[in-house]
């Protein structure tokens, strides 16, 4: 990977405006990964990207890999849990205690309606004034839930990822949420996604049933159905790793922090604490 190759990929992917000041920072990360000899497929994905979404998804993966590798945590890229299954998972690493951790990453950007509204206002008035109320925030949180669910299963419930049942495997979905709720996504929103309304004070509740939340018999029928649709995820995903970009407005040269929420039904607290401790040097905890 060289500067010209990376510049060409950025331009071909549809980037406009001022991005040249970010290229050297990104290039140094990619060169670091290339020297590891395990990321040739990721380098190829970046070099051949032909739209912004594909390019940004690969940049997110490269940033995750760089932050882990730069603190001495060796990752394997695009690994199959089950050789007989078609799908692969983005990353695998072996913890100090011998656990095998699989991480599937997802970039989630601001919804198109909000983006179009902002761009329209900028064109007319050179400023934007989009506001999000509680209903909008509920929709954004549900959208994050659906994006996580889509990494695990199809709409009809057919399993797509994390198909191995090997004892010791830890399955994590990592989702980058810096652009959601106009960049105001915080720890309370993470808790709502994973654990629902009971996990946050009353003022932050949005009528959300969490992905890891158990559907008690007293809940209404529509919540029972929702809980049933999350069954495979609750039985399979050990944790959700929420990722936050710094600076938030940087397009592709950024640093990531994280807020991890573990699934209490399948993850012991001691084990979760140990793995979180290994993640922390690579991805520091998001404080907001």
Mean pLDDT: 87
Question: What is the chain-wise order of helices and strands?
Answer: HHHHEEEHHEHHHEEH
Span between termini? 36 Å
Count of helical regions: 10
Share of β-strand residues: 5-15%
The coarse silhouette is globular
What is the structural class? alpha/beta
Helical percent range? 40-55%
Our Rg estimate from Cα atoms comes to 19 Å
Question: How many DSSP E strands?
Answer: 6
**Uncertain spans, ≥5 residues at pLDDT below 50?**
110-123, 127-132
Number of self-contained structural domains: 2
How would you sum up the major sheet? 6 strands, mixed
Major sheet: order of its strands? 1-2-3-4-5-6
Brief summary of the model shown:
Helix content is 41%, strand content 15%.
Description:
It is a single chain. With 288 residues, the chain is of the alpha/beta class. The chain has two domains: 1-70; 72-279, no CATH class. Helices cover 41% and strands 15% of the residues. It has ten helices and six strands; from the N terminus they run H-H-H-H-E-E-E-H-H-E-H-H-H-E-E-H. A six-stranded mixed beta sheet has the order 1-2-3-4-5-6, with helices on both faces. Strand 5 and strand 6 (255-262) form a beta hairpin. Helix 2 (20-34) crosses helix 4 (52-69). The longest helix is centred in the first third of the chain and has 18 residues, at 52-69. It is globular, with a radius of gyration of 19 Å. Mean pLDDT is 87; it is low at 110-123 and 127-132.
